[in-house]
Amino acid sequence: MGRPAKKKLRGEMNAFPNVIQYTQSDAKNLQGRWQSQFKNHNPLILELACGKGDYTVALAELFSDKNFIGVDLKGERIWRGAKTALEKKLTNVLFFRSYIDHLAEYFSAAEAQEIWITFPDPHPTTKGARKRLTAPRFLTLYQKILQPQGRLHLKTDDEALFDFSLRGLKEAGWQITEEIRDIYKTTDVAPLLSIQTTYEKRHLAAGKKIYYLQAVPPEA
Ligand SMILES: C[S@@+](CC[C@H](N)C(=O)[O-])C[C@H]1O[C@@H](n2cnc3c(N)ncnc32)[C@H](O)[C@@H]1O
To answer: Number of structural domains, the chain?
Structure first.
């Protein structure tokens, strides 16, 4: 996408009522108060690295009694998810453009019931390991913003990242409640797992297996 096209999308996105950006001076005031944006007290589910928000929107359609926030840094991707949510008139979806690294400044302890991470960048080199969204510093962050007995869900095509994540979660005391190494091995795929993101479709077209895990944070 060229620079003018990106600029146009950013301009449009700035006016969307369902997008909040870390650059807004009042964004930090939402810490602990996200439910006020939805005008109810329904549970809050986050999708991190949401890209075009495929999971966020699909989950919101499935669960009208829960609130969903898709988080990503890239404005033109957030634009797509936010636009779709507006077209579908979904009132239980917001998008937050932010660095995931800084989420503790925007969400209070135990504010989220679940976190989904779908197809995060694998950062395969040792040098890039810190940037993996399941690196220890991120697990500490998720533990903080998740409720006790909350759930972390990870979907990836990358076996090395999957094993790295499992290892890190176990070392940090998380309980692994589900581990599937090829979700499409069976024809009976759980509805929650059969939602396919932009990246998942690419990986499936390339013949890759899809891995899934679910974990519960350690007790504080
Ligand atoms: C490979 S894409 C996957 C997008 C989407 N989940 C999907 O499956 O189609 C990874 C996404 O993570 C986002 N991302 C990576 N690191 C991030 C960070 N530290 N903070 C916010 N977004 C991040 C990128 O902007 C990108 O959209």
So the answer is: 2
CB 103 within 8 A of CB 27: no
Is position 199 annotated in a ligand binding site?
Answer: yes
Task: Write the DSSP string, 120-156.
Answer: -----STTTGGGSTTSHHHHHHHHHHEEEEEEEEEEE
Tell me if 118 CB under 6 Å of ligand 1: yes
Taking only the tens place, the pLDDT of each residue in 174-199 is 999 999 999 999 889 999 999 999 99
16-64 pLDDT per residue, tens: 999 999 999 899 999 999 999 999 999 999 999 999 999 999 999 999 9
Name the strand (E) or helix (H) holding 117. Answer: strand 112-118
Query: Is residue 157 annotated as involved in ligand binding?
Result: yes
Return the CATH number at 150.
3.40.50.150
Residue 121 designated active-site: yes
Are 219 and 132 in a shared domain?
Answer: yes
Evaluate whether residue 116 is within a structural domain: no
Give the distance (Å) from ligand 1 centre to CA of residue 50: 6
Is 100 found in the same domain as 32?
yes
